[in-house]
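Extended Data, panel c. Modelled sequence:
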Amino acid sequence: MRALVDNRTLKQLPEPSSAPRLRCWVPRGVYAPQTDTRLLRQAIRREGVSAGTDVLDLGTGSGMLAVEAARLGGRVTAVDISWRALATARLNALLNGQSLRVRHGDLASAVPGSRFDLVISNPPYVPAPGIAPPRGLARAWDAGQDGRLLIDRICDTAPTVLRPNGTLLIVHSHLCGVDATLARLEKAGLRAQVVDRALLPYGRVLRSRLTWLREQGLTAAGRGTDEGTTEELVVIRGEHA
C-alpha cells in the first residue's frame, strides 16, 4: 500500500540480501520507499545492469530505484512530473555517491527520441473513487477508479522507448488487475510474466475505502489474499518478443 511520510530525516533503507545499504531522505509530498520499492529493487539487481546499460525510471519519486540502477553501473535517466520528486532524487543520488540525469515531464514524453535497455516503474496504482484526476499528496498513490490511470499508459509507451531485447519492470497491486497488465504488454509486443510476489496487510488508505473496493469487486482478486485484509504486490517483467 502506498503512503507518504512527513519525515525529513535521513533513513537507511531495508536491503535485499547481499545488497549494500542505501541512504535515503524523503520530504513530505514525495513517495517514501516501501515494500513495492524493495520488490522492484530486487528485480533490478537480477537484470545484470552494468556499465553501458541505459536505464529509464518512469515516475522516480524519491529516486531510490534510479540510485540502485546507477550504483550497479547503469546510465540512468529519472523522470517525474513533480519538481519536488526530481529534487529529492537528485539529492538521494548525491547522498549515495551517484549521478542521475533527471527530466521533468509526463512519463516517456520527457525523453523524446531516446531508447533504453531497461525501463523501470513504480507508478501510482491504488483504485480511487470518483473520476477527477488526483490532486496534491494523493497523486503519489491514487490512479483512477481501476487503478490503471498510469499503468495502461506505461504498458503502451514502454515498447516505444525500449531497444531491441530491452526489458520493462513494473510493480503494482493485484487490485488493479495483474492479468490486465500481462495482456496489455503482450498486445504491445512484449513477452510478459510475473517474476515476484508479496502479500502485505492493507494500509490506511485501502482500509478507509474498503466498502467502495468491495462494491467494485476489487478486494478478492489476488492470489492468496484475504478479502479486506491483504493485498498482493507483483513485479511484472516484459521483454521484446
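DSSP finds seven helices and nine strands in the chain. This feature is highlighted in the accompanying rendering.
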